[in-house]
Amino acid sequence: MSSATCFCRCRGILLPFGPFLVERKGGLRSFVLDSLFVENGKDVYLHGENNSTLFGSENFSTLVFFLLLNGAV
User: What is the pTM of this model?
Assistant: First the structure.
C-alpha cells in the first residue's frame, strides 16, 4: 500500500487489517484514534431490506472490533 493511500487526509471507520494497523513493537499506529470492542454482533448490526444476510440476524453473535482512523496525521 502506498503512502498516498495511507495519508490521504481521509477520516472514517475501517474493519481492521492487522499488519497495516500495528507497529512492530505491538502498539497501534498513530493514525488509530480510538477503538470499540463489542462482544455480541447482534448489538451492533440491524437487518436492512435483505433479510437473508447474516448481519443483523439473531444468528450473528460474533465479536466485532471497530477502529476510528485519521489519515490526515
Answer: 0.55
